[in-house]
Amino acid sequence: xxxxxxxxxxxxxxxxxxxxxxxxxxxxxxxxxxxxxxxxxxxxxxxxxxxxxxxxxxxxxxxxxxxxxxxxxxxxxxxxxxxxxxxxxxxxxxxxxxxxxxxxxxxxxxxxxxxxxxxxxxxxxxxxxxxxxxxxxxxxxxxxxxxxxxxxxxxxxxxxxxxxxxxxxxxxxxxxxxxxxxxxxxxxxxxxxxxxxxxxxxxxxxxxxxxxxxxxxxxxxxxxxx
Length: 226
Description:
- By secondary structure, the protein is α+β, with helices and mostly antiparallel strands.
- The chain has helices at 47-51, 67-75, 90-99, 105-108, 110-114, 123-131, 138-179, 183-223, and strands at residues 6-13, 16-26, 31-36, 41-46, 57-59.
C-alpha cells in the first residue's frame, strides 16, 4: 500500500462479513479520499475511519496514473454528491482516479457473490443484525439492501431471457442444417445450444437465489414490524 494507490476494505452486508468492497485513494499522509458512507459524499478522512478496523487491500494495475496525478484527480471531486450504485459508486470513483476509467468489478461480480452465500440461512443473521440496529435506521438498511438486490435482478433477468432466446435460435439452426444434410453445421449448432442451455440454468439458479434473498428481507421487515 503506497501513496496514490487504490485501496479497499471488505464491508458487511448486515452482519455477513466480507460481502462488499469499499474503495478509496490513499493520499500517503494517513488519509484516504473516498465516497464516504452513509453521507454518499466524496470526503477525505483518516485511514482509520476508512478501514473501520478491517484489513486494507490494494488494487493492482498494469497501467495507471502516477501517484500525484491520482491524488489530484481525487481531490478534484471532493464534496461531490453524485453517488449511484450502478454508475458512480466508491469503486467507480477510485478506479477513475487511478486509471482514468470509471469501472466497478463488484457490480459485475455481485451475482457470483450470491453463489457463496447460503441464502436459505440468511433469515436469522439478518434478524440478529436488525435487532441490534437503532429502530429508526432499520427501514433504511432494509430498503437499501432490497434496492441493491433489485440491481442484481435487473442485471441477471435480461441475460437469462437472452440465453433462452439463443437456445431457441441454435435449435432452429440445427434443424435447418439437418434438412440441408449439413450434419457438421448441425453439430456445431447443437453444441452452442447446449452452452446456452447451461448458461440459462446457471442464471436461473441465480435468479432463484435473488428471489429467496428478497423474500428473506421482506420476512424480516414484516416480522420486526418495520
